Protein: Trypsin-like serine protease
Organism: Paenibacillus planticolens
Amino acid sequence: MKRKIAAIGLLLLMLSCLSFFVRANADEAATYNAEEMYERAQSAVFYLRALNGDNTLKASGTGVMISTDGIAATAYHVIAEADHLEAVFGDGRKVSSIEVLGVDDQTDAAVLKLPAAVGEHASHEGKASYNALRVRGTAVKHGEKVFAIGYPMKDTPIITEGIINSPKAEINGRDRILTSAQIASGMSGGPVIDRYGRLAGIVSGSMRTMNNIHLVIPMEQLRMLLPASTK
């Protein structure tokens, strides 16, 4: 009888331990490789056209949705002095009448507001229903794996992979994240995403003095321009 009780006790202990490990694993945030990251994030990234008053192209770059109700981010130098903007998503959808909510030419950050989605992209309430990335709430660290997505050419989004070389470097009087994720012309304004799928920064440019080291706008600089509901 004592042996039976002991066996039952051991079994209950094993089940309790198993339950703990299952809960612990469930609580761990999922991480993604490059293929999985692109599948999850690409619909939130768009080709951004900065247009003159006569609709000729002034500049082009990349933007990223950071809320389902139409808030997006990009780099200021992409949209500087443009008369109006047009976003082109990977599914071919074009969105115009984009409002500039805030810019900071010193940090190169810019926040946009896209109009409410229509047709198949609208929610049941008729409001915007954009796919968006979660915004990371903490600073990046040395050596973290990150991904960059952007449009070096229209209709040609790409993803690159690298690490955080430095979470904070003063470049021309501005704090910048440095990353080895490859950046091509046209990717400015696009997202730099951590391995959990969170927006960790916005592509700003490249280093002329360091090969294969690129500049990223930290989230704290972008967050200062965001509406309170998005922060």
Remarks:
- The domain at 42-121 is CATH 2.40.10.10 (Thrombin, subunit H).
